[in-house]
Amino acid sequence: MNTPTASEHLLKSLDQCVVCGLCIPHCPTYPISQREGDSPRGRIALMQGLISDKLGDAEHATDAIDRCVGCRACETVCPAKVPYGAALAEFRLIGPSRKPKAGMGERLAKSMRRHPLAMRAVGIAARLALRIPNRRFKSSRLGRLARYAAGPLRKVKAPQEPVTSQGPKGSVVLFPGCVVPAMAPATVTAAQTLLNRLGYGVVMPQRTTCCGALSLSEGDLPGMTRNLGAVDKLAADHPDSPIVSLAAGCSSQVKLYPSILPLTDAPLAWTTRFTDFMVFVEQALAATDCRFVKSDLKVAVHEPCSLRHGLKQGAITENVLKVIPGIKLTALPRSAPCCGAGGSTLLSHPEIADPLAQNTVDALLALAPDVIVSANIGCAMHLQAELRRRGSAIAVVHPVEILADALSD
Ligand code: SF4
Ligand code: SF4
After folding, report:
1. Ligand 1 test: best mutation among 15, 44, 46, 71, most atoms within 8 Å of CB?
2. Which of 84, 127, 269, 298 sits most deeply, having the most CB atoms within 10 A of its CB?
């Protein structure tokens, strides 16, 4: 039997679509323009047309596909089980009209993981830059970057305990992703503390490594292959440890790689050891006598699409935080639309990202929380920027910060 080409593999996935349209009411981008091309069914048809070289206006079609936030809500409800997330990833890598871009995402990610202190300096500069009363600057790509870099996310409290790398239950490799160490360092500290208390030693890579998602979203196959090779090396250096990811977006992306036709020669065996922090902690908490102090905090849960639709873990944050006695948890409905942060949408498509953030923040503020939690750094930054724009002092933090803050002495 011949191995299918990448195009044949992609078309086979897309051809599963029976054009029923049941996904359309669940797509967050469709209501914004009401155009078929901004719906899952429309994007599938555009991808089929582009891959088969049957579309005249390739640029227009690619733009419509690029406006997809990659939330995969369509995949959750699809009766024909179209693997939309994997198909979109493959299309981004092999789509005929996509030219490899300059790798802005990879460069940004690199500078964040190599120079986290410099990124914080950029954050201070960004806060000042945002005072510039110039609408053109604020809507430029640089202005939008400033909006997100305007300071690390606020923390509830940074626990300060020495980190141990060996524990009675073994050790884990903590994979913080490229953005978390620079923008939410308290999340890393809290994760180390909690894992130690749960009995695990924590190994942190000397230099953080990108999971490849940013390169993939730009159609940069060589960049993605380099990223995956670096994670493979990290996994080989720690062959007996699970790799625990602090960003749900990375966790969901990595789980897609094996179902993408091998477009990269980077080995992927490590993906079976890659797990999301929330998934790991839920299991670890079930097997521990670790205690938490009572809390009267009112927490609004934002469950990222990467957990709800990517990893099919729609209630995991609530389930995990319930271990804290007295905590008051409220959450958006599981069917709530994406917050608009998906991939690089928050930088590249403000006309999609901003209204979705506004709707999500409206819904979260209606829950009257003391604090908002989100297990994906992109969503947390996007929601925090919208709260800051409104003058709200409510913080958006990773749930691990709430857990670590409630650890008993
Ligand atoms: S629900 Fe599935 S089969 Fe129906 S139009 Fe959407 S993607 Fe196609
Ligand atoms: S992934 Fe989300 S934004 Fe993209 S087509 Fe599906 S539902 Fe719409």
Report:
1. 44
2. 84
CA 171 distance to own-chain centroid? 24
Q: How far is the CA of 86 from the centre of ligand 1 (A)?
A: 15
Residue minimizing CA distance to atom 5 of ligand 2:
40
Q: List, for residues 391-409, the tens digit of each pLDDT value.
A: 999 999 999 999 999 998 7
Rounded to the nearest 10°, the torsion over CA 252, 84, 318, 353 is 90
Look-up of token digits 């990124």: 119
Question: 148-192, pLDDT tens digit by residue?
Answer: 555 545 544 555 677 888 899 999 999 999 889 888 999 999 999
Q: Provide the pairing of β-strand 298-302 with 371-374.
A: parallel
Report the C-alpha gap between 315 and 238 in whole angstroms. Answer: 31
Residue 31 CB partners (closer than 8 Å, separation 6+): none
What domains does the chain contain, in order, with CATH numbers? 6-94 (1.10.1060.10), 104-149 (no CATH), 171-283 (3.40.50), 291-405 (3.40.50.1860)
Ligand nearest to the CA of 85: 2
Ligand 1 pocket test target in 17, 65, 68, 75 with most atoms within 8 Å of CB: 17
